[in-house]
């Protein structure tokens, strides 16, 4: 969020990197290039020594200004009510049709956005009705039209701020119906049956849809007369019209010729795209004082309620003068570090951080934390994927340029001065207030990368075994293990594996999938499928190429694997159970694995037998007239001697995994020889 500094509207580098500049060095190069020129990006305050670098907002390119948002300009009224609906994310990512298939990910995103906008519209409607009642007006006439106009104009804001657009109907009648269905039926009320098919058929009101899109879906805001001209040109083949939301190319042969009066009268029923806007202050501090009161937050009582994450560079240098990067996560209820990754640069560690978090919590047998708080710079590219509320976490709070909002910052200080300071090579702060924390007379020695990492991991281990600040009779790790929040939800793998998992193209043959040199069976909800469920899955994937999104655990084994065809989730892939061949060595686990595998095989074989029995034998009588023979083969009528041969008996071949039994034939005993 831009802020005022010395009467200049400024932004920080965290608001520009990586959204608008890939790396900090790219931003610095851009600043240096235009430093002595009358135009271009301008830096108004240097960073360092506890200060932040400020960049003039007005010197940024227009496209960057529009993307960040100018607080001096009027904002959209729906913006204060809109946020991604976490419950919608959970509903649509796990929604199944009657045949057990999932929604395509493209439609999941569309419905999540539509549901979030509809909830914002409902909140806006309540606010307007309350405002009317306070003024003595108890009539709701006209509110629906204003809500429709606000919904349509809000698409531009969604495009700029979130790079998404909603697909709510542009017509008042259809808009009212969609809103009513959403309020009465719920999330399922906005799912269209035609989205079940990859190639969607055109509906009866396709002409109305096209006219609405021509009138309201163009940035030039054409008049009714211009819409009629475009419609006529479209019918004659001079214009090609494509729906940007569905990628559907309209076919002129499906439309009838309409008169100008008909088009004009229809469009006259629509309201102009007029949104009611609220004026916002250009002074960020006054705005925060007016709308964001000071919070007094209580410490989390349970482990797993919230995790705070941030990056840091431990105060040790390598021989090349660089420092190691760590990305850590601390559970605020137990004060224990639960996730950590490291590297020589920031590149790639953030994605590995979230993978490692899933591995750790699965290894310990706990659900992922309910809430995440973190910084914007490295997480901005994930806010529309697995960091949406309801995906990996129930609640997500990503802050830019707000260190106090990340509780982990407060724990880094005791980690630095109580543990890391005792190690060789510790770097003091040049301007530390305490003399004991200032540099000594001798320069700190450099360390190898492995030595720095090993020391930091030992510090985390020591930290987790130290007494808890509230439960002083317990260590932080004991609090983490024994005081987990009972309301935590299971990990939503369907929402996160396509984004943080590894992708492996493979295929399904005989109900088995090859993955990482191992065989996997079809399953659902953590269990190997059998019965009708298995047959349903086989009809979707057997003999087809599939993509498996999977994640490994801390031992390198497959933790969770999901099978996709295109963008559609089909089922889980569960490792094929194995059991001991020798019966005397079989354990109860071996017997259970044998029972599961037998049920899996029996399901497929029984289905094959049923299919075989359902096929009836036919007799084919060929009544085709035979051609007249004008050529006769000499000697063809000569009797041919038929010799009957006795066919040898054919025995069933042993299974591949059975050891052949050696037998002796034709050997007589000594007694039988005489």
Distance between the termini: 109 Å
Number of discrete domains: 4
Supply the helix-strand structural class.
alpha+beta
Strand order of the largest sheet: 14-15-16-20-19-18
User: Over all CA atoms, what is the radius of gyration?
Assistant: 35 Å
How much strand?
5-15%
Weakly predicted, low-confidence segments? 197-204, 269-292, 658-667
Overall pLDDT score: 82
Principal-axis shape equals: globular
Task: Write up this protein.
The protein is α+β, with helices and mostly antiparallel strands. It folds into 4 domains: 3-73, no CATH class; 84-267, no CATH class; 307-482, Nucleotidyltransferase, domain 5, CATH 3.30.420; 501-584, no CATH class. It has helices at residues 24-33, 62-68, 86-93, 105-134, 143-162, 172-184, 206-216, 224-235, 260-267, 284-291, 349-364, 376-379, 408-419, 449-464, 476-482, 493-500, 531-541, 588-613; strands at 3-5, 8-11, 43-45, 54-56, 75-76, 242-243, 248-249, 277-278, 307-312, 325-331, 336-343, 371-375, 395-399, 502-509, 512-515, 518-524, 527-528, 545-552, 558-565, 568-575. Strands 14-15-16-20-19-18 form a 6-stranded antiparallel beta barrel. It has a 5-stranded mixed beta sheet with strand order 11-10-9-12-13. The protein starts with a strand and ends in a 61-residue tail after the last helix. Mean pLDDT is 82; it is low at 197-204, 269-292 and 658-667.
